[in-house]
Write a structure and sequence with these properties.
13% of the residues lie in helices and 25% in strands. The protein is an alpha/beta fold. Helix 1 (70-82) packs across helix 2.
Length: 327
């Protein structure tokens, strides 16, 4: 879900935080931040059935202007993710759909809709919403004639754009459609919101942002890794404590201290994650470089309500009673 405003960061001046970090060889871990089912990162199985998107090209009643068709924008937005370095994510364009209500979307299509007013937007400030269906475990129907393979397997994903929002497909007026579509497709693939301000998955939409950042690449590559990555990466792991006790839900990110670029056509951003209930964290997908590791409270502009990290681990709330520290 995307909202159109961008807020400045807020830093609390409270008790001192201690932070330990080290650069390690990459091990299986998730980057900031996947959506979770039973504490497992949500993602499609690329072997169960062909993942495709199905566009309802109808825009009558929607507020859309510009030189490109919505199909062209969606194709480019999906291509941004499937063309990312280090990822094997893939998706095809399937047959167009005439479905005009999200609740009537069949299990075997992944609807892209501009006129589905029944989608759970929650208000005019929400530009679009992605609704995914995931498996609780293996053995259930996957809606495609087979059975689910694992907990967190995405078996359906619908993206609805708010018909009350003015969208621009290029040279028109309103919110840039490709910016919003690229963000929502990140959710489609299983990514949650990021607290890295310059990431595509940051939950507040800028005017135009259609290229991925390091944080986005780390996220998509952790869910759909290439057998042989384009760029070798490692992980930064550690533990965040406050007065000797573990800190849950601290936003920890690695920020490069050099001008070196590891990826082509990818914006250089910090790469982040949130700490687990025992205070540990692993930031994966980190290219070779020198990094400053920072821990900060999740206390705006992104808060726990944007990622629901506490509820994923049956915790009442994430901890925010500390000031930002670095290592």
């Amino acid at each position: 879900m995307t909202r159109p405003r961008l807020f400045p960061a807020l830093i609390l001046l409270l008790p001192v935080l201690t932070l330990a970090a080290s650069l390690l060889i990459a091990t299986p871990a998730f980057s900031f931040l996947p959506q979770l089912t039973s504490s497992q990162p949500d993602h499609w199985s690329l072997t169960a059935f062909a993942v495709q998107w199905n566009l309802n090209p109808t825009t009558s009643g929607a507020k859309i202007s510009g030189s490109q068709s919505v199909a062209q924008v969606m194709q480019a937005s999906f291509g941004t993710w499937t063309g990312a370095p280090n990822t094997a994510a893939s998706v095809l364009r399937g047959p167009d759909s005439s479905v005009t209500q999200e609740k009537n979307s069949p299990s075997n299509i992944n609807l892209i809709c501009f006129v589905c007013s029944d989608a759970p937007f929650g208000g005019t400030e929400t530009l679009a919403v992605t609704v995914t269906t995931t498996a609780n475990g293996p053995g259930a129907s996957d809606g495609h004639g087979g059975t689910t393979q694992f907990a967190g397997q995405i078996i359906k994903g619908d993206i609805s754009f708010n018909p009350s929002t003015q969208f621009d497909t290029g040279g028109g007026t309103g919110q840039d459609l490709q910016t919003v579509a690229t963000h929502e497709i990140g959710h489609f693939f299983g990514l949650d919101h990021s607290a890295v301000v310059r990431a595509v998955m940051f939950p507040f939409a800028p005017n135009v942002l259609t290229t991925l950042g390091y944080d986005d690449v780390a996220g998509i590559a952790s869910l759909y890794p290439q057998g042989t990555p384009d760029v070798a990466t490692a992980s930064i792991s550690g533990k965040v404590t406050l007065s000797g006790s573990a800190v849950f839900g601290a936003h920890v990110f690695a920020n490069s201290t050099t001008p070196a670029l590891a990826f082509t056509n990818i914006r250089k951003t910090p790469i982040g994650t949130l700490t687990l209930p025992d205070g540990t964290y692993t930031i994966s997908g980190v290219p070779p470089d020198s990094y400053l590791v920072v821990a900060e409270p999740l206390d705006l502009p992104v808060s726990d309500s944007d990622v629901s990290w506490a509820s994923e681990f049956n915790q009442a709330k994430v901890q925010t009673n500390f000031t930002t520290r670095w290592h």
